[in-house]
Amino acid sequence: MNDDFAVMLRHSEDQLRLMTRVARMYHEQGMRQLEIAENLHISQPRVSRLLKRAVEVGIVRTTVSLPAGVHPDLEERVEKTFGVRQCIVVDVRPGEDVTRALGAAAADHLAATLLGGDTVGISSWSASLIAVADALDTFRTPVADTVVQLVGGLGAPRVQLQATRLISQFASRLGAEPRMLQTPGVLGTSQARASLMADASVADVVECWSRLTVALVGIGAIEPSDLAKQSGNTFPEEDRALLEAAGAVGDVCFRFYDARGEVVDANFHDRVIGISPDQLRAVPRRIGVAGGAAKLAAIRGALLGGWVNILVTDSVTAQNLLDTSP
Fold it and tell me: Is 0.85 topped by the overall pTM?
């Protein structure tokens, strides 16, 4: 005898009949509780109790039918495995542009979760974030106060427009004030960085980083992206070889980390004009947008190290994260 049937036997036939009648009227006929109460000449509180009891004894069972392309089970497993706040998994069809699909999903997430008053940080030199900006609709009312650059946005003239447009477009769509970081992201020496950091216009942007409520970042593999290469904001080959030898697998905002997500060789970070690891990980919502086999190790490190606590990725990458987890 199953448990539901045993519970049902403890009710009289009249109770079960009334419980079933109320459940059908509510769930199948779409009647409101007050209408049911008037129709059956019983109190509304009793209708509510009967509906609750109908669920408890198994008369009413709730099922959720998953639409094609939706992966809540995969999302929940990634969240549980890596201890992240949320995972958004995109179903990418064969031949579909993964970056564009991720951008659309991240834009939908922002549209649903930005409610007003946010200070939003955006990392530079990310094709994924450009895709987010392109997919984002303009809000009717402002949903953020400030959009601030997290990494220096100056680069080679042929791609400089990309970094500038990224911040301007986000600010315009969100109804926010843009704050540009008018410096390169990577400098040749720590002395050059220190000199620029002392500039009043740079200090003004840096001050905003302590007030961030949302950070939207790309996740880079140890091999720099084409956009970063074209911008000139990369470390020389010999430096990158040293980072690899030290165990670096990826970066967020030019802050490199190993497979466990721990910072690798802080000496290189003295040449970066961008948000520090501690400042970034203090932001309440840290949204990483990345996918693809080439970035698997970088994404895992970003999750394990707390660099992001919300991940937007594709279904294949999500499954690979689970398959290769300890």
Answer: no
Are 123 and 150 contacting, i.e. CB atoms less than 8 angstroms apart? yes
- Give 145's DSSP letter: E
* 191, 271 contact by CB (below 8 A): no
CA–CA separation, 99 and 289 (whole Å):
9
Q: What is the pLDDT of residue 1?
A: 40
Helix 296-304 and helix 72-82, axial crossing angle in degrees, nearest 10:
60
3-state secondary structure of 151: strand
CA pair distance 200, 213, nearest whole angstrom: 23
Contact indicator for 290, 253 with CB cutoff of 8 Å: no
Residue pair 217/123 in contact by the 8 Å Cβ criterion: yes
Exposure of 138 in the CB half-sphere (CA atoms within 13 A): 5
- φ, ψ of residue 256 to 5 degrees: the values are -90, 145
Distance CA 37, CA 60 (A): 19
Collect the ranges in the chain with pLDDT lower than 70: 1-13, 64-68, 155-160, 227-234, 266, 326
Give the per-residue pLDDT at 5: 45
